[in-house]
Here is the input.
Amino acid sequence: MSNIHFEFNHDWLQILSVPFMHNAFIAGLCIALAAGVMGYFTIARHSTFAAHALAHIGLPGATGAVLLGLPVSLGLGIFALGGALVIGALGKKASQREIATGTVLAFATGLGLFFSRMSSSASQQMQAILFGSILTITDDQVLGFAIFDILLLAVMAVVYRPLLFSSLDEQVAQAKGVPIGVMNVLFMAIMAGVITIAVPAVGTLLIFALVVTPAATANILTSTPLRSMVLSSVLCLISIWGGLVLSAMFPAPRASSSSPSRRFSGSSPKVLRRYVITEKKTNYSLRVISISRDDPQTIVKSNKMTGL
Amino acid sequence: MAQQTQVERLQQIATSSDEPALVFEDAGIKRSERVIWQHGSFSIPSGSITAIVGTNGAGKTTMMKAELGLLPLYTGSLTVLGGPAGTTNHLIGYVPQNYASDIESNLTAEQSVLLGLTGTQFGIHPTTKAQRAQAREAMAFTGVDDKRHYRLSELSGGLRQRVAIAQALVSGPKLLMLDEPLANLDLAAQRETVHVLAKLNHEMGMTIQVVAHDLNMLLPILDGAVYLLDGHPHYAKMNEVLDADLLTHLYGTKVQVVTTPQGDMFVTPGPDEPDDVTPDIHKPSEVAGFHHHGKANPSANDTERRNVAFSGETPRHFEKVLSRAHHRSTRQTDKERKDINDANTEHKEPMQTDVEQSSKRQEGRR
Here is the structure.
């Protein structure tokens, strides 16, 4: 660790003002809102591990989509939704079956790796899928996130009380006439959507960082569900935006993080990485150039970061 | 004194209730192709407090779920508050076992009680002042008004139980059903819960049904009991159920009924059984098929028995036990029990013990 240097970048404001950073900020806002709202119910319904597993179930979908030349989000979304519907249909108890969930999680992760090894493009995107790459989010994706958020808020406003009631005690809610089966499937389906839009920010491995941890913190600090959701969203937003600002100020070996642990991960001490923004008329694209520390003139690898 | 109020209350119920709260007609229930209980034919009067008793696995919680329409009957019918089971759930308050014991959300007691009122509403409905007042009233009734801003996770088991009752009460039910409300509570909390139930029954005339293992705490307030025995549910008034032989049969272990000079009654486990005595124990799955006094085998004897069952009285199989107890207990117990037992057994000839044994064996074979 001693030969890693974080240098303060005096041009950080300039970096923050480039268009892909704008996209990252807006996407971060959308993701924070969705994750904050769903985080409360994820904890209330004891579904935190199921949420974590859903992201992993999405992994083979994501790498498989790259293999087939489809958008990553599409494959991820379809697999996560499929997994969500199965878990939801099995009932609330199923989301607490940790052994079965963990087994499926392991299988899905292995399958995801298998798909990624079958093509070089999938292999290149593996890290972005596992750990996220919020800087490569496109305008279209941001629009999709915004539409998802509006839908999410509309649906939640309608089902809020029955969902909360069934989270509190399923038997009582069922006796009073709440359709708990529908609530289960709906909750898991929304969860799949939230995971699909949160993966570009934190990847499939670190979904806990956005969906569960802020909500759990908010649960301790507030005493009503609504306040908890608002605070949880704010905490998510601070994490994502704070990560973006920090990574602009201190160009770390690997940036674009909402979770401090991520910034240290995945970088070899022998290699420095720099983000280079290349401009082609209107499109910005991002290159990660890895430079050998021993000989700074040598470019070890140059990867174009493509959007999820 | 206590006896007298009990009698008065029974009379009051008999005169005030126009229709029974629950009517079972030849009801039977299966779970994954296994018969839990069947041939349940009895009715429970409105305004009464009833216990559902039986061994573990006898189907007590299953009975509550059937009454709520959450589990379908495979035979017979079940009428709750004038409608088929499941159609009148808005008039029922249900308190499950271990309510919110593993809660991880930050809900306060008041929010939880409010959900009993608004939890089924889809759409955007801000909580009104009237709803808050209603929730406050229900919490005041169960004595947790001062705890309304506490989180459920901060409350003790007894207080959480009372929040659960308040949640069930807030929508103004006619029938309150509680599943093991006294389990895991200490003596003081048990007493408070029982006190709340008695108050609900007295002041609001609410019909109450309680699943219970330990009858002692509930004895002073109970009017009757549904006992799940040998795979059949039966309803009997309290003084009939409080019989050592029946309870021994019911729990599968030696039980004594102790009556103090003041008239209080206690149910206690008997002294350890000698090795050569086998208590009369059957698994529910074994005994569900013992005797079919239903439609399967309509002999003259069976028809008579079914008629007895339909009239809401104790079926003959248990009257054996009751009458046996009656012969012994008339010496020592109060007049009221004598009257009721006489009423039950007057049309039957007293049976000898050996006759009983053989008839039991016959039934076992059938």
Remarks:
- Residues 12-249 of chain A form a domain with the ABC transporter involved in vitamin B12 uptake, BtuC fold (CATH 1.10.3470.10).
- Strands of chain A lie at 271-280, 283-292, 299-305.
